[in-house]
Amino acid sequence: MAHCGSPETSPKVQAPRPESIEPTQGSVDRSIKPVLFEIFGEIWTVQSRLGQGVSASVYRVSSGRATTTAAVKEFQADTHGGDYGYHKERSVLENIQGHKNIVTLYGVFTNHSCMGVATRCLLLELLDVSVSDLLVRGSSGTQVGRPQQGHSMWLVQHCAKDILMALAFLHREGYVHADLKPRNILWSADDEGFKLIDFGLSFKEGNQDVKYIQTDGYRAPEAELQNSLAQAGVEGDSSCTTAVDMWSLGIILLEMFSGIKLKDTVRSQEWKDNSTAIVDHIFASNSVVCPAIPVYHLRDLIKSMLLNDPKQRCTAETALLSPFFSIPFAPRIEDLVLLPTPVLRLLNLIDDSHLHNEEEYEDILEDMKEECQKYGSVVSLLIPKENPGKGQVFVEYANSSDSKEAQRLLTGRTFDGKFVVATFYPLSAYKRGYLYQTVQ
């Protein structure tokens, strides 16, 4: 039986060290995966385990009576910090709900397994790919004679703005996230934006109840010092501030722009001696493939986040005023393949000759709608006769789950001897009738 928990306060205890909830695809489960959760009197089926850490596991679940999907974060009923993590994350999420760039908490419940074990659970909004996934899937590796290629300026700008807005809100509420990293930034297909997750190490500024904060590679210098003192059993003079989140975001944006994982770099003596020179070098190496002025604005923004003195670092609110955010960018095709939305765009299907014969055009519209409805509920379908978008098929589905299924099943199929290329497309742009001429 599951029930809604009663309000509880977070105990003043030492948290476990920062952990990653790692994806479990292709790995062996370390515990028995639950098959069902009973949530508020309704049975939800576990579709897959999305990730597992020391103190919690995350599952994708679907409702028994509808096609509703969500995520359940189940905390371990043992001594690995499960209770601490549950109370901490629940408390923070309940206090900061309502921002479009922060994961939504639907409710809390206790799960009673058939073994008689009770575990604390959070029912959360189900999100899509993480920035960590994008760094792996979207960046091309270094090749001879070719510079390292990071993500597009459109994607970097989109992520930076969304997370800065989340941090500005979080910091105004007096909270420090304290574990910002690529795995804790996820894309929402239905809201077409990036969202911040995992508040298990968060704390109120000035009331830090966590000794070990942030993950290696994204840890600010003052947090590194504090962690080292805590490990040595020495009490630090002061707690960390919201500035530690800005440092982490600076490293994340630098990784997205460069396509390089920087963990070893930021731990090096060279970085400690002159991080500014390394940032300059990274931008100089990539400026060949990017327009100069936006590159300089992004470089200066990242530098302002990576100042060693936390008091001199920019805040989230001042960072949002950077001229980098006033420059419009168009997404690359690779961006639209990686980021799911409810709109699907099909390329390499329609010849120009079909567009100017009205009877043929109407037949194609009907055929395409019939085909696309096999994969989900189609809201609208558009095949422009002129540029931009000439001959491309835009299919708006009722939700992103349907469009993702269609993209999976249509990609690589052949129609009239042609291989179909299926990408996603921003719903907001489609609704406005704005069809990007995407950069190849």
From TrEMBL:
Enzyme Commission numbers on file: 2.7.11.1
Q: Can you say what this protein is called?
A: Serine/threonine-protein kinase Kist
Q: Where in the cell is it found?
A: Nucleus
Looking at the keywords, is ATP-binding present? yes
Chief location: nucleus
Positions of ATP binding: K73
Residues covered by region (Disordered): 1-27
| Lineage, broadest ranks | Eukaryota, Metazoa, Chordata, Craniata, Vertebrata
InterPro entries from the UniProt entry: Kinase-like_dom_sf, Nucleotide-bd_a/b_plait_sf, Prot_kinase_dom, Protein_kinase_ATP_BS, RBD_domain_sf, RRM_dom, UHMK1, UHMK1_RRM
A Pfam family found in this protein is: RRM_1
UniProt GO BP: positive regulation of translational initiation; regulation of protein export from nucleus
Gene Ontology CC entries for this record: neuronal ribonucleoprotein granule; nucleus
The alphabetical list of record keywords is: ATP-binding, Kinase, Nucleotide-binding, Nucleus, RNA-binding, Serine/threonine-protein kinase, Transferase
| Example GO molecular function | RNA binding
**Catalyzed reactions per annotation:** L-threonyl-[protein] + ATP = O-phospho-L-threonyl-[protein] + ADP + H(+); L-seryl-[protein] + ATP = O-phospho-L-seryl-[protein] + ADP + H(+)
In what residue span(s) does the RRM domain sit?
Answer: 342-420
By its UniProt entry, which Gene3D superfamilies does this protein fall under? 3.30.70.330, Phosphorylase Kinase, domain 1 (3.30.200.20), Transferase(Phosphotransferase) domain 1 (1.10.510.10)
